[in-house]
């Protein structure tokens, strides 16, 4: 994302989750988000197959509980 | 009365050499003499502590059995619930919360073991920081150099032990918040395996990565406290341990028979020469007893740090959405923009980080087929000055506050247990740098054995401060 695109993203995402931000806040938040974007890019370099699931998955109830 | 270390206090009270009341008064005097300069404490409860200490002395006088930590004064990071007090978690926002109705589980366990709760300790707001530069409650200062940070986010917990105010504290560690203050303050710390200790009754930061654990001023005492903290908790969905696995009985085995390695690659590249020297001192001390191999490669460390950063930002930001919407100005200025950025980051980043974590965990666990204990610095450098914005790590100019966690984040993201040992390399102006002693999940005993060996060798030690 370019700086301009990041600013636009922060503005739109804040509206989507009902988070009021002024222009100065948007600019500061965008700096952080750009830093995180570069970290996210390093994760994209790690190959993950479709069957690579998250470390922990939801369990509806303990399997060994009385039924 | 001279200040006693944690394990000395246990022995002195158990033997009747000192009363719990006398030990407590020494600590209170030390807190009153030093805390205006250190700013470790955000709350004290001396009257309640005196009553608890008196109970210990009464039990001893009656010949009743004492707990394993009888008479040990302790304090807790102010994200632990203390019955009747508001759990601040370093924030202004939480001041409007109702007081806790019960002590946190780990506070209860220490008190059940006879330890005496003295107060609550400063921290980065909502644990989101590595420096305890808290705008609401002031910065906690490093007892070895008051111009420097004590580390964070459990900075009060580290500084209180280093300053000799109390021999035992509790803190939390999501990305390094036990290991960083241990390193900067020159004390012992234990981040147990993820899921080992109950987190019930503590204010969360990142549910997927939060750990709780102890700090201490000597290694045997740290192990004793850790053993007292253990126990299953069916009411905590993040507590996976189903049995107590004591460690104190095996400490004296040291590193005999253990395979010890030094991490290279990322962990070497991100360490300053002083941090490398700290590791070399530890490796050489352990190498006198075992073959220490250097240059062990930890898998995907940089990616793991990135994933930990992303998971932290998303979960931390989401947790505080209500107050970010309505009271953002009451948040810590140093972290509020990061919290907001985390709350807004795309879900694809978060989900990919969590999917990466399983693969990463499996790779890290495979590493421990060949190794029992792995050594690396806890921090890339010694404590920076309070207010530092940038640091230089081997010619790279990096933002100071996030970079302090470069060497801790990949390790906690794997969930492995880590003992941080206080080391004293040259070139730091007399400041310490800790080393991480990392073991496989659920093998805190091995990390503590390595710590015991370092303490016995004399290279890892807690030193007097400038106070």
The most extensive contact between chains is: A-B, 30 and 34 residues
Mean pLDDT of chain B: 97
- CA-based shape of chain A: elongated
Give me the strand/helix succession of chain A: HH
Structural class of chain A, by secondary structure, is mainly alpha
Low-pLDDT runs of 5+ residues of chain B are none
Strand numbers in spatial order across the main sheet of chain B: 1-3-2-8-10-9-16-17-13-11-12
**Could you list the spans of chain A in which at least 5 consecutive residues all have pLDDT below 50?**
none
Strand content of chain A: under 5%
Counting DSSP H or I runs of 4 or more residues, the number of helices of chain B is 16
User: Structural class of the secondary elements of chain B?
Assistant: alpha+beta
Alpha-carbon distance between the termini of chain A? 52 Å
Total beta strand runs of chain A? 0
Give a quick account of the main beta sheet of chain B: strands, pairing sense, barrel closure. Answer: 11 strands, mixed
Radius of gyration of chain B: 20 Å
**Largest beta-sheet details of chain A:** none
The gross shape of chain B turns out to be globular
Proportion of helical residues of chain A: 40-55%
Q: Helical residue percent of chain B?
A: 25-40%
Overall mean pLDDT of chain A: 93
Layout: helices, strands, pairs:
The complex is a heterodimer of chains A (67) and B (467).
Chain A: H1 3-16, H2 23-44
Helix pairs in contact in A: 1-2
Chain B: H1 6-15, H2 20-38, E1 41-44, H3 46-61, E2 73-77, H4 105-112, E3 116-121, E4 133-134, E5 138-139, E6 141-142, E7 145-149, H5 155-162, E8 168-173, H6 179-185, E9 188-191, E10 211-216, H7 219-229, E11 260-263, H8 266-269, H9 273-287, E12 292-296, H10 301-319, H11 321-326, H12 336-344, H13 347-367, E13 373-377, E14 390-393, E15 396-399, H14 400-403, H15 409-414, E16 418-423, E17 433-438, H16 444-457
Task: Supply database-style keywords.
heterodimer, A: 67 residues, mainly alpha, B: 467 residues, alpha+beta, 11-stranded mixed beta sheet, two-stranded antiparallel ribbon, 16 helices, 17 strands
